[in-house]
Amino acid sequence: MENQSISRSANINAEYATPHLLADIGGTYARFALELGRGDFQYVTSLLCADYVDFYAAIRAYLKTLPAELLIEHAAVAIANPVDGDRVSMTNYHWHFSIEEMRQKLGFDTLLIVNDFTALAMALPRLGPNDVQQIGGGSPRKQSVIGLLGPGSGLGTSGLIPAGDGWISLGSEGGHTSFAPRDEREIVVLRYVWKHFEHVSFERLVSGPGLELIYRALVEHGHGMMREVNAPEITQMALDRSDPFCVEALDVFCSLLGTAAANLAVTLGAMGGIYIGGGIVPRLGEYFEKSSFRARFEQKGRFSRYVAAIPTFVITAEHATFMGASAILEAQLRTLSSDPGSAILGQIRRIRSNLSPAELRVAEHVLAHARAVVNDPIAEIARAADVSQPTVIRFCRSLGCEGLSDFKLRLASGLTGTVPVTHIQVTDDDSALELGAKVLGNTASSILQVRSQLNRDMIERAISLINRASRLEFYAIGHYGVVAQDAQFKFLRLGIPSIAHTDSRLQLLSASVLSEQDVVVISSSSGRLPELLEVAEKARERGAKVIAIAASHSPLIRKADVALIVDHVEDVTTHLPMVSRILHLLVIDMLAVGVAMGRNQGSASLMRGEADERLDEATIENPVMVKKAGARNQAPGVSLASPLAKLTSHSRE
Question: Could you say which residues bind ATP here (predicted)?
């Protein structure tokens, strides 16, 4: 056990009420530290993962080495594994655990689990000139994308995107992209590895286990004597030049890392530079600077000049991953302290004494199973807490939330330790699979962004207007014509007279004969098209109500009676709206579902009213049957929640 500690009387920096526990978990070692103030890492310890049955045992062993008087409330763990949801199962080791269960067992208020290279990426803005070593030429461009990769037990990749005064980190598994050889020697390696693995990724070769594979491939091809040697031994013999196969293996390794780094550079457009971390390269020292890495990095065919301008750096800072994990934890705690809506768990703890017994059961369930509640449907939450579904809604509103959907959104923001990517640029070098993943990822991120900006009052007003309308007309132009046509089909099926116009001349003629009982829904991404502005004015002159689906602060929004904001900037160079058109279609879906649910609820209310009338008549003739008849005629499944509350709840489930 390697342990660097300070005296028991150490003072904690005033900006930290309690020390922050930080961890960097790899496939071989688990490193821990306490941060007493920004950048002040103490009690640094490295534990061998193989000595502990699971993550909990390792962290408990570390905690036992600390002074008893130290109170730890907040922790951040960087782990060599993708982090998606509550369950963590390490790719290159057997540890697995539930984040929320671990937080409770350890007694922490905050436990953030992030990908190790996402954490390392967030450290890059905090690195100084003495924390890195530049390899080759090139100069970083300010406020540009930065790429990161590094071989260890696997090949981690990440990146940083500038966003205002801060950065957005990318959670990436780019190390699993398919390996492609560049010369005959690498073809030899590929053929050898194919004997053992169906798919050969860059991680399979550009890693500690990968260096061992390269060595065995070269020995077999060169008819040498195969020896059982591990990656550190191969590296040392290469640096000593005591074994020609080890020398060649390390040279191949550096070349492949150059290829992987160049691929990342052109994929991200990383003009801010490519940084190399991990447990292998920083230990190579001067050898790596003179290796084939940079030459291979710049061998990119037509894009050779492009990558030659991009600098490459080796991260030499001792505690870089701790710095990144600290940055993410610091940002999270700052959010929790400045935004009461995000600190929802603390708010629940404070109001427990004021809750009714039923609402208190919901509170206890949320506190015990916070991450599960984010994904569970309302029926499951109600069943687990042994309450009715309306009680769950009342509990959410007692916290100032609009409903279950709003509550889940705030709860999730208080639990997550990563920052979602808002947009990933598609490049010419992307494969079909990469293109598909980026398009889907960008769409999903945009939907989540619009969901967080929904205005409940505006949606309810739009649904109310549509419910009272004698006639619905949908106007859109160009690529957004499908939005109008889709809306016409949906509302006709709901029994509402509807028509879609996508020709500007027909729109103006139709708007000229509208009445005060009619409603017009206009879909426009920019909200600035003169033709649509003109029909909006004409519709309002005729007394019709106008619902606009458009960007905020646009002229169309100012002319509308109800504004449904969809802010999404498309790449105009493609002349093809993709994501924003999907967002407009989803807004139409929300309106249609809201109208349908409102009508169903109205039918149920009417059914109850008719039953009450029959019950009153029956009471005169046979009072004994009143109680039984009332029970039989209660409409099943009818909730007091508004149609919008139901709609937003269902949209999350």
Answer: 23-28
